[in-house]
Each structure stands twice: as structure tokens, then as C-alpha cells.
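Quick one:
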Amino acid sequence: MRLSDEQIIEGLRNRNNDTVQYVYDHYFRMCRYIVTSNKGSDEDSKDMFQESLLILIEKVRKYDFKLSSQFQTFLFAIISNLWSKELLYRRNAENFAERQVDIDLHYLKIIEAYDKQLSSSLLWKCFKRLEKECQTILNLWWKGFTQIEIAEVLSFKYGYIRKLKMNCDESLTCIIKDNSELMDVFTENPAMISQTSYA
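Output:
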């Protein structure tokens, strides 16, 4: 079941354990990606996520709290800022100042990179569920082969390849639609549909 941003906020406000688990299941991997791609460890990721959740719950419990952005963006901003402060604490201030980047732009770039990586990985898993014949045909198609050329390579008639490719496309579409995790990525970031690959 997918929760809306409003349902997540309401659940956290009421300290609902199922909502907390939902947030962990759907967003911890992103936290780990932010931290580990910025000189952090898996253990750091867990610490940052737990601390971010506590801050988040404290914020949403305030009577005047209003979510002015997507929940994902709000949570990741908290995580990024926390990790930035942690890095500042760990490093020499002068060395850190030389390499410091704008946090807002930085974490948005990380989110974009993560979404591309995640969607490509999930798409590849969907692709691997196809019959081998479909995998071969679609691979050739994506490499720029025409259907006539594919028929020649595989020693099939053009009409057969034309029909088979259409069936393979439909099969892959159905598999993708059945992958709730992948559809979540596309729902939150529609632009990812045109930016993903199977490589």
C-alpha cells in the first residue's frame, strides 16, 4: 500500500509505528546513498536516518507545521543538512570550507543520480524476467537494428519478428507495471521514465 505525503505526516504526528516502518522501507536506501556517496559508512547512514526521523517527528508535531514541498524532498533536506554538519564536525574547518558546496543543489543532484541508478537497476530486473528470445530481440532493437535486420540476424521471417517484438514490448510493459517499487520511482519522478536505460 502506498501512503500519500499527508498520510505519512499524519502517521508520524501520531507516532504510528506502521508509518515509521513505511518511511524506513521507502526512504532509508536514499539516505544511505546520500551518506555513503559523501564519505560516509552504512553505520553513518543508520545514525543519520534515525536522527532525521526524530527531527522530522518533532517538526510535524508542532501545531503550525505545514509541508511546503514533497515529503521526500523535505526528509532528504534534513538528512543532507545533518550529514553536512557531521562532516563539518569531523573535518578541519578550513579544509571543509574549500570543498563546501551548496547543500540544496548538492542533495538534489544526489537524488536525481540515485533515482536514475535505482530505476535502471529495477528496469534491468524486469527485463531479465522476459523470455530469452524477447531479450535478444529487444537488445538488438535498442542497439539500432531494424526489424528487418533483426529477422536476418535471427534467421526468422520479418512478419514473425514484427509480431514477436510487439508481444515482447507488451510483456515488458506488464512486468514493469507489476513492479510496485519501480512504479513508485516513476510516480515520484516522472522524468525518470525517459532517462532510464537497461544497461
